[in-house]
Amino acid sequence: MERVQFSMEYIFRASPSILYKFLTTPACLVRWFCDEVDIQGAVYSFFWSGSEEVAEVIEDLEDERIRFRWLDAENEEEYLEFDISKSPVTGETILVITDFCDADELDDQKQLWDSQLQELRKETGG
């Protein structure tokens, strides 16, 4: 199956530092992303409904970007990235998510991210 890269952009009222905290700390990640998370150095073990996915942080710029590589991914070029910036015009915080999935699952993955990000927006106050 062909794998495709996609990016989605979301606008937040929360500051970049608050958003970064929600992308990197266990207490915040469990509020919107996963059921449980264990962090050992640069390795994050995420748990959803009893299944575990392990990712390594391959880039981390505080309040700007965090990029994970899933350890069981077939293609080492694939990653999950959260990129945070501030709009110079509106002052809003912009979060861009870059992910990969099978081509036939693209719509489902986008819907999943939309749902997850609605939760994140609620948790961060908009």
Summarize the structure.
The protein contains three helices and seven strands. The chain has a seven-stranded antiparallel beta sheet, covered by helices on one side.
Plain-language structure description:
This protein is an alpha+beta fold. It has one domain (3-124): 2-Layer Sandwich (Alpha-D-Glucose-1,6-Bisphosphate, Chain A, domain 4). It has helices at 16-24, 26-29, 106-124, and strands spanning 3-12, 36-40, 43-48, 51-61, 65-70, 80-86, 93-102. It has a seven-stranded antiparallel sheet with strand order 1-7-6-5-4-3-2, covered by helices on one side. The longest helix has 19 residues, at 106-124. The termini are far apart. The mean pLDDT is 96.
Q: Please identify, by name, the CATH architecture.
A: 2-Layer Sandwich
| CATH level-3 fold name | Alpha-D-Glucose-1,6-Bisphosphate, Chain A, domain 4
Secondary-structure-derived class: alpha+beta
Uncertain residue segments: none
Principal-axis shape: globular
Terminal-residue CA separation: 37 Å
Instruction: Return the average pLDDT rounded to an integer.
Output: 96
Task: Look at the structure and name the CATH superfamily.
Answer: START domain
In percent terms, what proportion of residues is strand?
A: 35-45%
**What is the share of helical residues?**
25-40%
Total number of domains = 1
Order of helices and strands: EHHEEEEEEH
Task: Count every helix, treating DSSP H or I runs of 4 or more residues as helices.
Answer: 3
Strand order of the largest sheet: 1-7-6-5-4-3-2
Question: How many strands?
Answer: 7
Report the biggest beta sheet as strand number plus sense, adding barrel if it closes.
7 strands, antiparallel
User: For the CA atoms, what is the radius of gyration?
Assistant: 14 Å
* CATH level 1 name: Alpha Beta
